[in-house]
Predict the structure.
Amino acid sequence: MMTFLRPLLGFTQGFITYLIITQAHLTGAGTVFALIALTFPLWGLQIKLPSQKMLFLGVGILILMGLVYGYAAYHLIHMMQASNSFLPYLLASQGLTSAFILFVFYCVIMEEEEVHFPYLTLFSESWQLILKVLLGQFLVYLTWGLFFLAAKLFELLGISLIANLVFSKPFTYIMLPFFFGIAMTILTHYEELLTKLRNILLAFCRFLYPIFVVISLSFLLVIPFAHKALGDFWPVIAGLSIINIVLFNGIFQAGFTLSPYARWFSILIYVSFIIFALYSLYILRFPLTDMHNYGFKPEIFLLFLQLLFLFAYHFCYSLAVFLSTKPWLSMIKNVNTTIALIMALIYLILALPLIDIGKISSKAQLSRLLNNKALINPQNPLSTSGYLVGANLRNANLEGRDLRHINFSGADLRGANLVKANLANADFSKANLSEANLNCANLQFVNFKEANLFLARLSSANLSLAQFDKTNLTMANFAGANLKNAWFNQVIFQKTNFTNADLSNTYGLKQNDLDKACGGNVALPDKLSIEPCSY
């Protein structure tokens, strides 16, 4: 019976997926929530089946994870729909990391049959999970490829029945999870081979780590004498720190009770821990300085969080050199487990609407904007845009301000005064700019996707290469504006005034659009015309 259980779970997962997508008629966010909440437990059971003793606890954990992470996905999709921001995507990637870590803890509980987390079991289950998912998906693609081949072969004979079946929605939604369940059954039967494959990868780490230590340590020791600013190197140092943690844990997971290297090289490793800890502490100043001088921004805060975790790892590894008793560096076991759990919980909290760092950032940036303080650090490539997503700027006076690269997505700018403002490369997607005054403003490369420009004034504005996608331009005034090479798609035109405007070389503009607009002396693309305004 156990042989068929995982394929049955996969089939059930696929059937539920098919019903949700084709029959439930939910919103996009609701669909994703339902998919995660209802199918994640079934997917998790295929990866790691609990014993009879742990059945209720295991199923309960998976159901709870499905509900929590489903709600997080629901919240993040609403964020994506409300504005055009990278933040929900960053939080989603962190949420996936959190789910992976907590799922590993679930696997360990099921393996140990108690709430106990032996270090070697934790990392063994981590590798098993990664290898199972990758190899399982590989088998799914191979199996689907064979069905695809069968469909095409019989199409050559004029028989389309198999193609109709293979390319149908029921087959796609139901059979692919079913194949994954079969893959998990096979891989569970050959877990010893997965362990051997894991040991090969760990052996690679044992070989590569000494080479990396020599290279990275030499680089870090030479930096102070290179006569170059450390600010030029901190992203490289962060990358080296990550590689150091990954490769070191590759050898540490093997469970050595003594150092696998000669004593002199072990001392070199300990020195590298301390050097990395010092550099990791120092580079924290860069995001902190940026937030102090240019305000709180989500991407800088999340960067600071990553760098803080890197420092925590290397600082604790350095302490382990002096405080650990036998076996070798034993303190690191508790360090890795604790930091991983803290990371998972923080990432989960940030993905949920408990702490909305987007709103916190918008309020902080808005305060700086209204107090004439800088929002962008021109020296930092990771801080190239201000964050005013969803900000309330109704009737704000921003005349003549330098607002380049600001993300105003979803902001309320009704009646705002933006005369002669420099808004090049700004993002106004889904923003409300009704009755806003943008006369003579620089709006090059601006994104107006799904923005509301009802009764907005844009006379003599520079809108070259601006993007108008599903934008409401009802009664907007573009008199004398430069719209060369602007891009139009499904735009709402109604009494839109283009008198003396330059619409040459625009993309997507159609005659039926211009029939709802007006203007005299308008430069238009070939074969398009517009009637003079009579209102």
About this structure: The beta strands are 386-387, 406-407, 467-469, 487-489, 496-497, 517-518. Residues 204-357 form one domain.
